[in-house]
Input
Amino acid sequence: MRGMRKNNKGYSLVELIVVIAIISVVGLGALWSIIMVFSANAKTCANDIIGAISECKITTMSKGQGNVRVIIYRSSNGNIYSELQVRESTPGDAWSDTNGWVAAHEAEKIGARKCSVGTTDGADDLPDKANAWRIYFDRSSGSFLYSTDSSKPNTSVTEIHVQGGRKNYCITLEELTGKTILELQ
Output
């Protein structure tokens, strides 16, 4: 009997393998949860960008007079913001980024630094507020306004890529219809 007690000290190989397997499963579950949280941030950010663009289109189409635009930018703290701006027009008034624009609403946080937002897949080239993406709509047709004429708005963004975690979303802006399409890539 004394010999049996001496040999029962410590853990058996089977117990050790079971404990390692349990720790591995819990660790993989935690890693998968973290990846899903970052992926959810990307989808939320993409949906918020579409919402800001849609709000701009609705305001443009329903406003009695004046010009409406949405600007999308990354702040100095790394967060992503959208701001709806309105400028009352007078006859002969040209589009300008310097005069007369008033925020219709406070800037709204639409994404965090955990998401990369850019014009090409994998790029994080969202500019600061001074160089923000400016998106305008034609009031009569609802289409996006694209122009190289300095007296009109110049919206050069036709695709917006939002990436976070393992998810990559592409927002396509259709010029003629003013429609935004969200695709998972």
